[in-house]
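Look over this record before class:
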Amino acid sequence: MSAKKYLFYISQNYSFEILRPLQSQIKVSGGEAVWFASGNDVNLTNFNSDEVVLKTIKEAVNFKADACFVPGNVIPNFIPGLKVQVFHGLEWKKKGHFVIRECFDLYCTHGHATTHRFNELANQHQFFDVVETGWPKLDQLFSTSPIVYFENNKPTILYAPTFSPSLTSAPHLIEQIKTLLNEKKYNWLVKFHPKMDINWINQFEKLGSEHFKIIETANINELLQSADIMISDTSSVIGEFSLLAKPVVSFNNSEPGDYLINIKQANELPQAIELALSPSPELLKAIDKYANDLHPYKDGNSSARILESVENMIKNGKRANKPLPPNIFRNIKQRINLKYWG
């Protein structure tokens, strides 16, 4: 049997940390993996020297992949191969997480929190399969070592707001964070979403301090391991941090649960930080319950489960009763964006 060929179809820099564990698993299995970056938001210098990067959409089509892995929302149907959605985050509360865009043959879900709903949607639409595999990005989360960012023993807070104007905490918390920074009680790491409004990034950059660092790396696992607590809002990174059994302070979370210390006013932040740094047994129990529902896999084998599911589908075909819809208008738009009419 010839080695399987796989295409990573990406459009954002966060894709690297999601797909590289899967790339490693493909190499172990003897398969071939190549990358194609759609659009202008991917920093091409992030590619490693040993990674194969296709330069044109025509090359991506001619590669004739057996399967394509996509962390984003769409992929054109004119690219060959099974279309596999692996998701770009764990946060199912965000608008659009359960939107079916008629692009994917297989959804690789992360845990009961999303699997149940996608199974309902699969029964409704009849043209895609669902397999709970876990998220490839997390294969290395638990084995990643923390980084020493500060030369002191103060507690380290990771501030990771989302970018969505309706959900982001950045405009509401910046002055309170500035006040806390001046008190010099904590170290602060800040990680912005790639789509964050540049105006807010500029405002936070003005808070420069020996206890304050804005981190631009696309590899967030090391940040999650390095912080004691997190402050966020309705960002998908909340779920990842919770898997490490660490408390999160959220600002106006869209669906706050008992696993969060959720605040509604900026002046509540100092007390919430103190509660997070000394979590109650009840809070830790709630975090554990939430994490197990969201992503129960801590074995580092999600990539292997994804690849096994895809290879089973290649071998045995889809269980779904219908083929993917033609999705005419979305695919015409993709052809225009990619300038491909082959």
